[in-house]
Specification:
Oligomer: single chain
Largest sheet: 2 strands, antiparallel
Shape: flat
Strand content: under 5%
Order of helices and strands: HEEHHH
Number of helices: 4
Helix content: over 70%
Strand order of the largest sheet: 1-2
């Protein structure tokens, strides 16, 4: 299952990369649909994803690594709704405070710089 998710995310990422490559290096309009409305960049991305699944399924080291990742993720404790809400409030308040401090320093340094220019 993890290999399938990894391959799908790789195919999704590759589709953007291939589409950008086609747009950058090809003449406009050359990345047209080829079969049933599917673009060449999408076909290449799916091919890379399928090839990745085939290659990774044959390696025991990758299968062991994927199993360890799944086991570690099962041990994670994710925050519930209340913890997420309280942590978000703390982050917002802290961001406003830091923004105010930065604004004060910016205002003070601007006033100081203007004062020095007026002296000259």
């Amino acid at each position: 299952m993890t290999t399938l998710v990894g391959a799908l995310s790789l195919a999704w990422t590759c589709s953007f990369a291939f589409a950008a490559a086609f747009a950058s290096f090809a003449e406009p309009g050359t990345n047209r649909p080829i079969v049933l409305g599917v673009r060449m960049s999408g076909v290449l991305a799916v091919a890379v994803g399928v090839l990745t699944v085939i290659i990774l399924q044959r390696h025991a080291a990758y299968q062991q690594y994927a199993a360890e990742v799944v086991e570690e993720l099962r041990q994670c404790i994710f925050p519930n709704k209340e913890e997420t809400k309280s942590d978000s409030i703390v982050v917002i308040i802290f961001s406003v405070i830091i923004g105010g401090v930065l604004w004060a320093f910016d205002y003070a340094s601007g006033a100081f710089t203007s004062f020095l220019y007026d002296l000259l």
